[in-house]
Design brief:
By secondary structure, this protein is an alpha+beta fold. It has 3 domains: 94 residues, Nucleic acid-binding proteins (OB fold (Dihydrolipoamide Acetyltransferase, E2P)), CATH 2.40.50; 262 residues, Bira Bifunctional Protein, Domain 2 (BirA Bifunctional Protein, domain 2, 2-Layer Sandwich); 127 residues, Gyrase A, domain 2 (2-Layer Sandwich). Helices cover 29% and strands 24% of the residues. Strands 6-9-10-22-21-20-17-11 form an 8-stranded mixed beta sheet, with helices on both faces. Helix 9 packs across helix 11. The longest helix has 23 residues. The two termini are 49 Å apart.
């Protein structure tokens, strides 16, 4: 038997017991004839004491030990001497007097610092990820993830959902991000695709009559990475039949409420707030608003396009917008600080940032001379300007105004500590546009996916004014992050054909891409809808982390590579020949 107890499981009630423990040497303190070691396993720490005078073997082992050696000991549980207790440890009142010990495994000096006292290169941390995962705070995130998944599974089981796995190797149906392709050896020249989501399969399960489906599903997307995005990720995937939008909201508000109560012991109030896409964009400039602070966008289009400032006037003539943010009490911003804000919004293609400081009862700006006194008085009222405020204004195309000010708002919220980090602000964002303009091909493309149902009241303008059509799509947003999203699906084949026509997808193309799926709709498809939560992101937010990679055991770096196993990697010519493939490497790759 390697152990009778774990390192986190002993207490005062065990005093006098003879126990066997095994674990990693976390800290070693040499006090002459006594060596104190904090022995660690996944359950916690226990202080053990090796008395060199008891035996020659104990003395030899004590002198040989190094950090991260795995040590097995047999000893007696003792109460620590008065004044030496460690109140920060669960079992800080006891220690083990070692009788026998054995080194199970030796460890070389670690290539990374587990104490985090020194900064370690990110790729080095990923290369030795299995060592990073030894850290208590890292392991806690994965216990948290485990508990979240258990609560989720229990909830769906209690509500008559069935968990069904869907294929990982499937047909490529490119709509959205790029697919990861897998060549087929037995079908030369043909490829599988790894699923971006189980979307088509879960809809087929509704046609099959399963009524309520869920899955903890692996998904794959070949897209640019960021702090909350990985090439492979996990979804809590759900689909339901004979439901409308409110039915889906009701079920999943209960799920979120249960999660927060069982994991964080926080009672959330439901129902959550609902806001339309148009309202969210006009107030916050971004479709995943952080509602923990103010700084709402102010529409100045009508007010500031009537006077003599031709820059604003010409933008509005071209159907652009003028919007601003009132940064309360920050009129003392320096020129340098304002220049940094200007550089920030240029990331989002804004051409400039107009600033109006309100000091001494009047605006200070190089553009005020272009506006009538009456206009400036109305500006004070509309923007709720007070002494010491500064207005930050962007005028441009609608998308640029929203992108630049929406992201500037989030930047200012963090920079000036305006965010109440104790709040959990959930909001359902609804009524998304059905289509957006594909800039490259100058045609409509589905904002969500082509199987999303449009609002029935907008069917009369589907072909004549597609960009005004709203959909039955929705996102659940939490503190500036999209927690999950979904939609009511199209179940009528004729309506689906109309959508394909708007998207300029021919019958032939639709058949090639989605033929098997469309065929199923001929045999009685129920009204259905669903959503998917990003599990990795959910864990990240509950854990209070800022990086999704901390919630994934073996993540990729920002270039979608793994420094640990060096994937992706070049494969042998034999493997390529078996797959009937030729690999053409770029010049820089050939040199490596």
């Amino acid at each position: 038997m390697y152990r009778t107890n774990t390192c986190g499981g002993l207490s005062l009630k065990d005093i006098g017991k003879k126990v066997t423990l095994v674990g990693w040497c976390d800290t070693i303190r040499d006090h002459g004839n006594l060596t104190f070691i904090d022995l660690r396993d996944r359950y916690g720490f226990t202080q053990i004491v090796l008395d060199h005078s008891k035996s020659k073997e104990l003395s030899i082992i004590a002198k040989k030990l190094r950090k991260e050696f795995i040590l097995q000991i047999i000893g007696i549980v003792k109460k620590r001497p008065l004044g030496t207790e460690n109140k920060e440890m669960f079992n800080g009142e006891i220690e083990i007097n070692v009788v026998e010990s054995k080194i199970i495994a030796e460890a070389q000096p670690l290539p990374i610092d587990l104490t985090q006292r020194t900064n370690t290169n990110e790729d080095l941390l990923l290369k030795y990820r299995y060592l990073s995962l030894r850290k208590k705070e890292m392991q806690e995130k994965f216990f948290l993830r485990h508990n979240i998944v258990k609560v989720v599974r229990d909830f769906y089981n209690d509500n008559n959902f069935i968990e069904i796995e869907t294929p990982i190797l499937a047909k490529s149906t490119p709509e959205g991000a790029r697919d990861y392709l897998v060549p087929s050896r037995v079908n030369p020249g043909k490829f599988y695709a790894l699923p971006q989501s189980p979307q088509l399969f879960k809809q087929l399960l509704m046609i099959a009559g399963f009524d309520k489906y869920f899955q903890i599903a692996k998904c794959f997307r070949d897209e640019d990475l960021r702090a909350d995005r990985q090439p492979e990720f996990t979804q809590i995937d759900v689909e339901m039949s004979f439901v409308n939008q409110e039915d889906i909201f009701l079920v999943h508000e209960k799920l979120i409420k249960k999660l927060w109560k069982e994991i964080l012991n926080i009672d959330l109030k439901i129902p959550f707030q609902r806001m339309s896409y148009n309202e969210v964009m006009n107030k916050y400039g971004i479709d995943k608003p952080d509602l923990r602070f103010g700084l709402e966008l102010i529409d100045l289009t009508e007010l500031m396009s009537k006077d003599d400032f031709n820059v604003f006037n010409s933008i509005v003539e071209k159907k652009g917008l003028i919007k601003g943010i009132n940064l309360k009490g920050k009129a003392n911003l320096s020129r340098n600080e304002i220049l940094k804000l200007e550089e920030f919004i240029k990331i989002y293609k804004a051409k400039g940032l107009a600033t109006l400081k309100f000091v001494g009862g009047k605006f200070e700006s190089n553009i005020t001379k272009f506006f009538k006194e009456e206009t400036l008085k109305k500006l004070i009222k509309i923007a709720k300007v007070e002494e010491g405020d500064i207005l930050l204004i962007v005028a441009d195309k609608e998308k640029i105004v929203f992108d630049s000010l929406g992201n500037l708002r989030n930047y200012l919220g963090k920079k000036f500590d305006l965010i109440d980090i104790s709040k959990w602000c959930f909001v359902w964002v609804t009524d998304f546009p059905m289509f957006e303009l594909d800039e490259e091909e100058q045609r409509p493309k589905a904002l969500h996916h082509p199987f999303t149902s449009p609002k029935l009241e907008h069917l009369n303008i589907l072909e004549s004014d597609p960009y005004s059509v709203k959909s039955n799509a929705y996102d659940l947003v939490l503190n500036g992050f999209e927690l999950g999203g979904g939609s009511i699906r199209i179940h009528n084949p004729e309506l689906q054909k109309r959508i394909f026509n708007v998207l300029k997808i021919s019958d032939k193309e639709a058949s090639e891409k989605f033929g098997f799926f469309l065929e199923a709709f001929k045999y009685g498809a129920p009204p259905h809808g669903g959503l998917a939560f990003g599990l990795d992101r959910l864990v990240m937010l509950i854990a209070g982390s800022n990086d999704i990679r901390e919630t994934i055991a073996f993540p990729k770096n920002k270039s979608a590579s793994s420094p640990m196993d060096n994937s992706p990697s070049i494969v042998s010519k034999k493997q390529l020949d078996e797959l009937n493939l030729i690999s053409v490497l770029p010049e820089e790759a050939k040199k490596k």
